[in-house]
């Protein structure tokens, strides 16, 4: 795991969602998320239920989100899991970087299919990026998503990421989106999509 500083928050609330750590009650909804073919269409295909169950049994629900920057996205009203959000470091040995040493902050998001189309991923991602911007020094933050994944690319652009390069990974064209972390600082309000990249 990278030694570079990470977002330390373990809980972040917005109007409609709560970013929090996983708990046992999330199990079934997390399995459904991991095994939904639509959710995994651009991520190499869904996981097999049996494999997901075995992994959860082996590591325990709490350990799914033990790493800093890894969250369950929960519906704030019901506390039900609606997705996952990861603000981690992109390993240097993967393709797709904007700095020489790699390990840039990288954002990833998955929402259950029934939560798409309501602005919830945008809300969750904005809150996580804002919290990271308020805590960490300015630095590049990237999103890597399949070029064919139009929904994900739309979200990236709406958040303020600019597509800066494409490359191949997992036998598919990937687009790398770039923003500067401090463009998400609280003071910058909700204006997104017009900043210069880092
Ligand atoms: C990528 C993904 C998270 C995007 O979810 P999403 O709900 O489309 O994203 P947003 O939160 O930005 O919501 C935007 C949509 O909500 C609509 N919306 C409705 N109410 C809204 C509100 N109050 N505020 C903002 N948007 C709202 C927008 O019009 C937009 O709909 P449209 O794209 O049909 O025009 C989701 O499709 C997903 O989980 N995909 C599978 C996993 C994946 O591929 N992840 C990417 C890996 S990096």
What does this structure look like?
It is built from five helices and eight strands. With 198 residues, it is of the alpha+beta class. It has an eight-stranded mixed beta sheet, sandwiched between helices. Residues 191-198 have low confidence and may be disordered. The structure holds coenzyme A. Coenzyme A (COA) binds next to strand 5, helix 4 and helix 5.
Tell me what portion of residues adopts beta-strand conformation: 25-35%
Order of helices and strands: EEHHHEEEHEHEE
Count of alpha and pi helical runs: 5
Described by the principal axes of the CA atoms, the overall outline is globular
> What's the domain count?
1
Highest-level CATH class: Alpha Beta
CATH fold field value: Aminopeptidase
Quantity of strands, as a count? 8
Low-confidence stretches: 191-198
As laid out across the biggest beta sheet, the strand order is: 1-2-3-4-5-6-8-7
CATH superfamily: Gcn5-related N-acetyltransferase (GNAT)
Distance between the termini: 24 Å
**Which class of secondary structure composition applies to the elements?**
alpha+beta
For the record, the CATH architecture stands as 3-Layer(aba) Sandwich
- Main beta-sheet annotation: 8 strands, mixed
Briefly summarize what is shown:
Helix content is 25%, strand content 26%.
Give the secondary structure arrangement, pairings included.
Blueprint: E1 12-13, E2 17-20, H1 27-34, H2 49-59, H3 61-64, E3 70-75, E4 81-89, E5 105-111, H4 120-135, E6 140-146, H5 150-159, E7 162-169, E8 172-180
Parallel strand pairs: 5-6
Antiparallel strand pairs: 1-2, 2-3, 3-4, 4-5, 6-8, 7-8
Helix pairs in contact: 1-2
The site of coenzyme A has 21 residues, from strand 5, helix 4 and helix 5.
């Amino acid at each position: 795991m990278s030694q570079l500083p990470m977002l330390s928050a373990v809980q972040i609330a917005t109007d409609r969602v709560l970013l929090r750590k996983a708990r046992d009650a999330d199990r079934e909804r997390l399995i459904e998320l991991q095994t939904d073919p639509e959710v995994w269409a651009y991520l190499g295909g869904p996981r097999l239920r049996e494999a997901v169950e075995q992994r959860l049994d082996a590591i325990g629900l709490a350990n799914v989100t033990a790493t800093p920057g890894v969250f369950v996205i929960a519906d704030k009203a019901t506390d039900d899991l609606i997705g996952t959000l990861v603000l981690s470091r992109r390993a240097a040995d993967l393709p797709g970087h904007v700095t020489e040493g790699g390990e840039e902050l990288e954002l990833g998001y998955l929402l259950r299919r029934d939560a798409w189309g309501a602005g919830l991923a945008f809300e969750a991602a904005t809150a996580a990026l804002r919290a990271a911007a308020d805590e960490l020094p300015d630095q590049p933050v990237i999103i890597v998503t399949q070029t064919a994944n139009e929904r994900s690319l739309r979200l990236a652009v709406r958040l303020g990421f600019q597509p800066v390069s494409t490359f191949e990974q997992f036998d598919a064209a990937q687009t790398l989106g770039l923003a500067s972390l401090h463009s998400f600082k609280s003071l910058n309000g909700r204006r997104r999509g017009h900043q210069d990249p880092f």
